[in-house]
Predict the structure.
Amino acid sequence: AASKIAVMPAVRRALVEAQRRFAAKTPGTVLDGRDIGTVVCPDAPVKLYVTASPEVRARRRYDEILGKGATADFDAIFEDVKRRDDRDMNRADSPMKPAVDAHLLDTSEMSIEAAFQAAKSFIDAALDRNA
């Protein structure tokens, strides 16, 4: 739903301003989103762009739904992931892309714990460099 609403410029502007106010709070915040490092907080001291292949993201969503006891159609989820990526990457206002100074973390072949540890290691090192 967020991807569909994000194409509305007035809504995007209002949400970006709200996110910026939230991010400015002391002692700092961790924000997650497809344009956080490029639009919302382009001057953030640490930027991590977490991704995985569309197939892996669809499989994770499918497994999550099944884990809740619901039924799901993998092919429909996979198509939805691809549509969302296309919509977000090609929108006129703030297209989805990694910030040039973001660390890319592809979690396609990682467990949740491995992805967490990789992110934590990068963030800890970046914060140490910026201290």
Remarks:
- The mean pLDDT is 92.
